[in-house]
Amino acid sequence: MELVLLIKSEDYPKLKDILLKDDIVSRASIQFKDGKEFGKEGYVCYMSGLEEQCKKALELIKDENGKILAEEIKGKDKENIINKFKEEEDKAMEGFGGIFG
After folding, report:
1. 26: Cα within 13 Å, side-chain hemisphere
2. What is the pTM of this model?
3. Residues contacting residue 81 through CB under 8 Å, at least 6 positions apart
4. Residue 48 in contact with residue 14, Cβ under 8 Å?
5. pLDDT tens by residue, 34-92
6. 6 Rama sector, left if φ>0, alpha if ψ -120 to 50, beta otherwise
7. Residues 1/23, Cβ–Cβ less than 8 Å
8. N or C: which end of the chain has fewer CB within 10 A?
9. How many CA atoms lie within 13 A of 64 on its CB side?
10. Dihedral sign, CA of 15, 16, 21, 24?
11. Where are the chain's structural domains?
């Protein structure tokens, strides 16, 4: 399962810490990027993992006061962001291939 979240700049440090410290969520593949790369304000989080991990992440985007720290991106926008993350990952792997190939 894949999940894309848009995180407000002021909530980014707190939410990043929450996601990376959670025992279930932290086992997924989680990447953060500046939202400007995608024409967004704040930060974008791309998460790829088991359904359980992604569902738990969606629960964690609400803090103890009920404030929502991130918005889930869906549809075409989600697909475009995921493709961009994967393209960058592929380019990085090609670079490593040249070094170690």
Report:
1. 9
2. 0.87
3. 4, 38, 44, 46, 73
4. no
5. 999 999 999 999 999 999 999 999 999 988 888 899 999 999 999 999 999 988 887 77
6. beta
7. no
8. C
9. 2
10. positive
11. 2-100
Take residue 41 and report the two structure tokens written for it: 């304000």
SS3 content of the chain, % helix, strand, coil (to 5): 55, 25, 20
> Is 25:56 a contact under the CB 8 Å cutoff?
yes
Distance (Å) of CA 84 to CA 10, 46, 62, 91: 24, 10, 27, 11
CATH of domain 2-100: 3.30.70
Give the residue carrying structure tokens 């393209």. 87
- The total of other beta-carbon atoms located within 10 Å of residue 73's CB is 21
Tokens of 70: 């991130």
DSSP state of 22: S
The letter for the amino acid at 27 is R
Give alpha helix (H) positions in the chain.
12-21, 51-60, 75-100
